[in-house]
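Q: Hi! First time asking for a complex rather than a single chain. Here are the components, and I think there are two in total. Is that enough to go on?
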Amino acid sequence: MLQFRFAVRSPFLLSLALFAANAQQTTSPVLDAMKTELARSQEKLRSQPVPPYFISYEITETHTVGISSAFGQLENSSENRRRQLDVDLRVGDYSLDNTREIRGGLPNLPQFGATPVPIDNDPDAIRAVLWYQTDQRYKRALEQFTKVKTNVQVKVAQDDASADFSRETPEHYSEPIAGIQVNRAAWEEKTRKYTAPFARYTNIYQATSFLQASVETRWYVNTEGAVIQTSQPAFHLYVIATSKASDGMELPLYESYFAFAEKELPDDATVLKAVDKMIHDMEALRVAPVMESYTGPAILSGRASGVFFHEIFGHRVEGARQKNSADAQTFKHKLGEPVLAKEFSVYFDPTLRRYANTDLDGYYTYDNQGVKARRVNVVENGVLKTFLMSRNPVEGIAQSNGHGRNQAGLPAVARQSNLIVEVAPAAVVPDLKKLLIAEIQKQNLPFGLYFDQIEGGFTFTGRTIPNAFNVLPLMVYRIYPDGREELVRGADLIGTPLTTFSKIAAADKNIAVFNGFCGAESGSVPVSASSPGIFVSQIEVQKKAKSQERIPLLPAPFEGGK
Amino acid sequence: MRNAGILLLSATAAILHGQTDVVMDAMKDELARSMKQLTVENLEKAYFISYRIVDSDNASVAASFGSLNQSNAGRSRMLTVEVRVGDYKLDNSHFFSLNLDPGTRLVIFNGTVELGLEDDYKEIRRQLWLATDATYKKAVEDLSSKRALFQTRSREDEADDFTREDPVTSSQEQPPVKVDIPKWQNEARSISALFRKMPGIYTSMVTFNSVNSYTRFLTSEGTSYTRRQSNVMFNSEAATQTADGTPLDDFVWFHGRSLADLPSEQELTARVQALGQRLSDLRDASTLMNYNGPVLAEGDAATQLFRLVFLPSLIGAKPTINGLPGALQSALQGLPGLPGNGNQGENPFLDKIGARVLPEFLSVTDNPAIEEYQNHHMSGFSKVDEDGMRSREVPLVEKGILKTLLTSRDPVRGINHSTGSRHAGSASPSNVIVTASTGLSEADLRARFLELVKQRNLPFGIAVRRMRNVVNAVLAYKVFPDGHEELVRNVQFFGLNAAAFKNIVAGSSSLNFLTVRFEPPRNNPLSVPIEENFTPVSLAVPSLVFEDVTVRRGRGATPTPPVAGHPYFDKQ
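A: Yes, that's all I need. Here is the structure of the assembled complex.
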């Protein structure tokens, strides 16, 4: 049985760019070609015995500059522009169409992938691609629909009787197309500079910095009349380094920065300071004791808490999971019920560009189904209010709330955007450490844990594997009753969602943002998760998977630093 | 189509450039240190280590229907480390294993790593050190697993694992290609725009690619070479369907070592027009039911059939002794970009050396030493192969008798030395020339073919001028006794295998020339060669008459043609 693994990993993907938002024309030759061919396709297919009831085209243009260096040496410097087409073509009607899950069958895997589209604004060449792909997908949809109709008859009645596609107001929106102008030579030098300090060490085996500057421009049209053009620059800068302890355990660390504008990225001094800290932390981690299995209270830093919420909660409020027969549907029947302490609220807001002095990677104005982005209050004062919705309705929620997202080439499903955890003053304390120490004394434990930096996490939401989550920390400290802190390594934070939720007790005022990429069935999409530091009265730690490879047999062929 | 390259054979690249090469220095120093010192307690040291560093820069431009699809350029530097533990007779090679250690961040993938682009001695040493370490550790484990396997199993292939060869130092310099990218963009646009005049074609594409590479190769035996070499390619593909839905597609592909080796824009235009024309013609062609009788292979089809059916048997490649687990192998073969593990089944020609494999009037030679043959550019030219062995002419079949197979330093039974034929990671052909000692003129060959048709009392014979693959013909014709021809579509050949080549009854004196992209079958589908992932093979093959071939109409479900017409032609 296939399981999806959901992961956010900050150093995982790309992005590096500098841009100039120059207001160009807002009527695009690409959009015009899409509109014309959409109308023609609809007209030509109307005479078929089973015509499509809905067609949408989305063309995603990605203009990327990528620059990377390792140990002070340039590794790569390139620029690339490409366009990809997504077609959503549906036969049947809003209540039952070709996209419905075929129960007992193989997962409905995407068959086409993203189709390349010409990058010149030549309507004839673009329309030639649209035409051929529409035809291919129409034939595929017909086949699927026949299977769906039989499956509906042969299997038991579905638990969730909701429709297959929501009706939405067609939107018209256009923002100017952003440009990208990165000084590549300058960034080549910067990435060299950021990784040069690692080169002094003989026990650091990977040290890379990369900048990915990109502009993603999306054009969307559908047969309901929506016409949308969005264009969004993004700059990602990463520094990644890995060392190894003598027992083989790999010790990766990273720093990541995200901004909508190049000038918002940190200056050299800030990055170099972080690099020094990474070197120092790796040094400390190599000799840190290995953490054994543990259960007890813990503090999660804001970033750790953000990922923690993304995994244990975020993936479980993605709408389509409430109706997929293979999903555990943890929260399906909990609408209106308390799921968290009453001081805690959680919302997703893709329209938020900035929070806690940080640009948010989950920002967008329209989702991949042409639905306007909006804030969704999922938990208000501890009570579950709604789910994140794409145009795939679930029982009781007929409309999308602008969270239908995908990576080009995959069908959109409900995905997260900018997750924000807010805590009412009653549960905010100035110092979580005091709370932790009180708790370990109460439970008569030798120590509690503080999860500082994390690299990401993953969770399982299916029914055939226990519904667990795993947060992958990089820097974890034991906190002893006397207040002493000790760095440890090899600890993963695990748990099951409902139990863990009931243990979240308090928060501090140190709000932090985790920007990253989230991978699930509709591909990799940029997201963020923001939270204050939190106190959890009981968590569980599992030993981290560990490499069995020895450190190098021969000493380095050069003198090491320090 | 004359290669403007200057070719040199001299002592070392360093001397050639009159300066020290810090990359080569780093390779030499780390190689010497590793051979001397690298060991795990109580386990063997390496008996052979090689380093290969390949610098490359590439450009690619793609267009369709008059519009650019993409235009990219990039640079890279890759390192492959090979470590052999054991001895020439039995070492860790030809053994498939996976490293499933969770510490994937520092595990070297098949000895291959990406390096920084800059010539920094210390940093290159660091990467060589780490890659050699990881590769050595895996080699020691693989050898131990392989020995364990032989404790419980007899060894079927008695060939050694590695040939002993005298050290050779060589270099090859061809001037790098300087691509005018805007010019390629315009040419790609204008050539792809030819399809705007071809209403019968549904999808089409034109691409230009260039790769300049500079290889530094060094072994612990003292063999080394440097090679500066380029690949320039043009490709165009087109596809359509017949009225009954049968898919039709074909391509043209050209390869050169310099821009001058590619056909002119005018010639490319003519070839792409011909591509569109033949697909359009095929849409209206008739079909054929069954045919058993003589087949005349002419033009591209003669070279294609030789390459697809016969040539693979002339390669002596040593299979891995354990292969891939079945499920994993089939999964990998399904993935695009990963070549199938094609040589697990043994090549029957291994036991045919000295036996007749072709009719007596046919001879085959592989000759990497030539750049030109009968005024045709030969792309498979090289001075040195990827093992550092000198390239040389290898007579493969003389008067129908198999003399040897093409091999690398991985020996196969009966062939104890390399033929200097390692390209794209494994033993591969280079320039393949087939000659017919009693070759007929094209007119006489055709007369001989029609005579056979008549003898068999057939209403027509089948001539084939272009294949799509080993089974499907693109251009096949009914040839009637009065000489007139009729194009037929959806034609498939059955039972055409290497053995069938023994029954060729006649060949032409003139040769058909074609350069093809050749990817040798790989022992380990996970290992991707870094110097070239394919090798260009130029073939010169006579037109051939096969005595008896089964030909039939292709069967199977076909998709229906598009519901709406092509938007560009519909509106006109």
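A: Residues 319 and 344 of chain B are 6 Å apart (CA to CA). Let me know if you'd like any chain examined more closely.
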